[in-house]
Design brief:
The chain is of the alpha/beta class. It has two domains: 137 residues, Alpha-Beta Complex (Aspartate Aminotransferase, domain 1); 238 residues, Type I PLP-dependent aspartate aminotransferase-like (Major domain) (Aspartate Aminotransferase, domain 2). It is built from twelve helices and 14 strands. Strand 10 and strand 11 form a beta hairpin. The relative contact order is 0.18.
């Protein structure tokens, strides 16, 4: 294995899920739902499977899916031409990797907000670029962007910034002010923004997802990425997309077409159907996840953790120190065996692990009975 990929031989999700399976623990580590998406979407996939949609779809994605993505994106007031400004990818993961491969190169620095989703570091490394982290800081009960640190991190080698909101693992949803600070840095320094918006629909308490591309000066320099997995409970389908200017989409396509060329042929029309017809289902999902967020947060507090409020995503973060533990990673590796619950230590998503050493991430995207059982098991820690 080449040196630049040596830090990436395994993922926390693969390891923690394997441990959860081995110990028969409830898996609140890897974020995936344990119920299916809307029946109409599943039916549309079946019709496509039996209706002959089993060969290569067009390189940029099936036209009805690109049209549905454009209409969906128009909800934010952004308008993309389905033919030149939208590209379907193998999940957001490929979209992120292809964007970095197409737009960054050795010698470039990429700003990454810490803690960061694990694929970012690996994809920056595959592109041969260097990541430079900008921390979130615990501020008034939420994790906020350190905008001073953001400005200070820019050098004459900085080429791009990866922005994930709603944010995995903290559940932070960036405010308009935080996004405006990012936009200002991008415009002032001629940076490209690559936004990971896979949790765009999973924002709670009346909060709002604001795509960075909608801020002044950003439409021309933002590669907006999302996917179907989290909105429609189909994380295994890996249907994602990129929305950007024709120039940026053409660049990302150059990389994407030699990574997978195309993928998910019969699933593409089903996701098109879901984007067009199942947003009421997504709203019910959002409300149910908000309730699950409340229930798990309460349960963790009752079990002795300090819990940061989560404003979106599948995840809530908890401080293990009130229970007398110091090292959340060490605890995470023991929890499945000792009490039958798996979680992930947030330090694995960081370069500077110190401020995160005592933080665990729990996923609440599980059936209510599963969450209740997990909560009762967590009480054994007291
Ligand atoms: N970004 C974030 C922040 C995620 O949590 C995930 C994981 N589910 C992904 C990207 C990957 O998305 P996809 O499954 O569409 O590749
Ligand atoms: N996005 C999911 C999480 O953060 C996991 C995805 C994966 O297993 N790679 O838990």
């Amino acid at each position: 294995l080449v040196p630049r990929l040596r830090p990436f031989t395994s993922t926390i999700f693969a390891e923690m899920t394997a441990l959860a399976v081995r110990t028969d623990a409830i898996n609140l580590g890897q974020g995936f739902p344990d119920t299916d998406g809307p029946a109409g979407m599943l039916e549309a996939a079946r019709e496509a499977l039996f209706g002959g949609a089993n060969q290569y779809p067009p390189g940029p994605g099936r036209p009805e899916l690109r049209a549905a993505i454009a209409r969906h994106r128009a909800r934010y007031g952004t308008h993309y031409d389905p033919d030149s400004e939208i590209l379907v990818t193998a999940g957001a993961t490929e979209a992120i990797a292809a964007s970095l491969l197409a737009l960054t190169q050795p010698g470039d620095e990429v700003l990454v907000i810490e803690p960061y989703y694990d694929s970012y570091a690996a994809s920056v490394a595959m592109a041969g670029a260097e990541r430079k982290v900008v921390p979130l800081v615990s501020d008034g009960g939420r994790f906020a962007l350190d905008t001073e640190a953001l400005r200070a991190a820019v050098t004459d080698r900085t080429r791009a910034i990866l922005v994930n909101s709603p944010h995995n693992p903290t559940g932070t949803v960036f405010t308009r002010d935080e996004l405006a600070a990012i936009a200002r840095v991008c415009v002032d320094n001629d940076l490209i923004a690559i936004t990971d918006e896979v949790y765009e629909h999973l924002v709670f308490d009346g909060g709002e997802h604001i795509p960075l591309a909608t801020l002044p000066g950003m439409a021309s320099r933002t590669v907006s990425i999302s996917s179907a997995g989290k909105s429609f409970n189909c994380t295994g389908w890996k249907i994602g997309w990129v929305c950007a200017t024709p120039e940026l989409v053409a660049a990302v396509k150059a990389a994407k077409q030699f990574l997978t060329f195309v993928s998910g042929g019969p699933l593409q029309p089903a996701v098109a159907y879901a984007l067009e017809h199942e947003l009421d289902w997504v709203e019910r999902l959002r409300l149910s996840l908000q309730h699950k967020r409340d229930r798990l947060s309460e349960g963790l507090r009752a079990a002795g953790f300090d819990v940061w409020p989560s404003a979106g995503t599948y995840f809530v973060c908890a401080d293990v120190r009130p229970l007398g533990f110091r090292d959340a990673a060490e605890l995470a590796w023991r929890l499945p065996e000792t009490i039958g619950v798996a979680a992930v230590p947030v330090s694995v998503f960081t370069d500077n692990s110190e401020p995160w050493k005592h933080v665990l991430r729990f996923a609440f995207c599980k059936r209510d009975d599963v969450l209740e059982e997990a909560i009762s098991r967590l009480h054994k820690l007291i």
